[in-house]
Design goal:
The protein is an alpha/beta fold. It has two domains: 188 residues, L-asparaginase, N-terminal domain (Rossmann fold); 152 residues, Rossmann fold (3-Layer(aba) Sandwich), CATH 3.40.50.40. An eight-stranded mixed β-sheet has the order 2-1-3-4-5-6-9-10. Strands 11-12-13-14 form a four-stranded parallel β-sheet, sandwiched between helices. It has a two-stranded antiparallel ribbon with strand order 7-8.
């Protein structure tokens, strides 16, 4: 009987890094060692075999649309092979949360896709990459496992929820209030929540558009802060108006607001100008999560991520404004009016900014 295949795709990152001094876990060069070297000596469950390919060798801070296209194409190809049980991707941690979100949102895999990184280079005295890889291989052999999963320091995170929280601790990832899906300790898996996408399978309808040669819709991300002027937004609008075709025109803006995605009034005024010019504006929170006043702007993609049918494509801007309460405050101003000043009536999403930017790109791509 032929063994089941775990397809391993190497892309570089700290997990493939090398330092001059083994005792130095912070000063190193990322993306040096080939993925085949990282797999040496790791144990496999009976009946499984590894096939490895080096797709890229980069520091993940430098990931591009071209890299993401190649990764989407490679992972989808492996998922379509009946003999492949799971796909494992070695990846740098700086943008791992973005790649994980993209893979889950677009491919919605019914097999496990493991994104594995490390906080210390492979040459460190106490490197964490080998343990994260061992945990990923165990997950690959776990019956029923599915979706994009990120094993890190004994915890397993869903790809559409994971976020990087610390620059050098081994426990560098989290998932906000949702927390980890599961934990691995002593070879035993303890699962607390369903795997990503457990529910009716969705078709990867955006994949052909993402793999096309045309640039993805350009979405920029900026933040609201004290003493905002809105000058960056106006500069982007001027660049958009003067575009000569050398780069993709601005299509969307994700704004990481203060607190519950609130915006400085000067920034809100500039963003209203952006919307009038045809730029789609979404709000999120710079502290990582918010509770939108109305339906989540990304609810259509969130529905697909969680295995539901999703909802019709909609920025949610009108819903968010209409859903705001109109009861008067103690100062005599309505809550709706106060919210209008703070948010400009812009659609909001609970996603953190790195993933919200990708979700808006997907929204714009699907909307045509």
């Amino acid at each position: 009987m032929k063994p089941r295949i775990i397809a391993v795709i190497g892309t570089g990152g700290t997990i493939a890094g090398r330092a001059q001094n083994p005792g130095d876990a912070l000063n190193y060069r990322a993306a040096v060692r080939p993925v085949q070297d990282l797999l040496a000596g790791l144990a496999l469950a009976p009946g499984l075999a590894i096939e490895a390919q080096q797709l890229a060798q980069i520091d993940s801070k430098d990931v591009s649309e071209a890299h993401w296209r190649a990764l989407l194409r490679a992972v989808q190809h492996q998922l379509e092979r009946p003999e492949v049980q799971a796909v494992l991707v070695t990846h740098g941690t700086d943008t791992l949360e973005e790649s994980a979100f993209l893979l889950q949102a677009v491919l919605q895999p019914t097999k496990p896709v493991l994104l594995v990184g490390a906080m210390r280079p492979s040459t460190a005295l106490l490197s964490d990459g080998a343990q994260n890889l061992a945990d990923a291989l165990q997950l690959a052999a776990t019956p029923g496992a599915r979706g994009v999963l990120v094993p890190c320091a004994g915890r397993i995170y869903a790809g559409h929820e994971v976020r990087k929280l610390h620059p050098h601790r081994l426990e560098a990832f989290g998932a906000g209030d949702a927390g980890a899906l599961a934990a691995l300790a002593g070879g035993r898996l303890q699962r607390w929540r369903p795997w990503p996408g457990e529910g009716p399978p969705q078709s990867p309808r955006l994949l052909p558009r993402l793999l096309a040669a045309a640039p993805w819709p350009r979405v920029e991300w900026l933040s609201s802060h004290g003493a905002q002027s809105g000058a960056l937004v106006r500069a982007l609008l001027l660049q958009r108006a003067q575009a000569d075709g050398s780069e993709a025109p601005l299509r969307g803006l994700v704004v990481a607001g203060t607190g519950n995605a609130t915006l400085h009034e000067a920034l809100a005024q500039a963003l209203q100008q952006a919307e009038q010019a045809g730029v789609v504006v979404w709000r999120c929170s710079r502290i990582g999560a918010c509770v939108p006043a109305g339906p989540d702007a990304a609810r259509w993609v969130l529905g697909a991520l969680l295995g539901g049918a999703g909802e019709a494509l909609d920025t949610g801007a009108d819903d968010a404004a209409d859903a705001t309460a109109t009861a008067p405050t103690s100062e005599g101003t309505s809550v709706a009016a106060t919210a209008k000043v703070a948010t400009g009536g812009f659609a909001a999403t609970a996603l953190p900014a790195p993933q919200a930017r990708l979700a808006l790109q997907l929204h714009l791509l699907a909307a045509g």
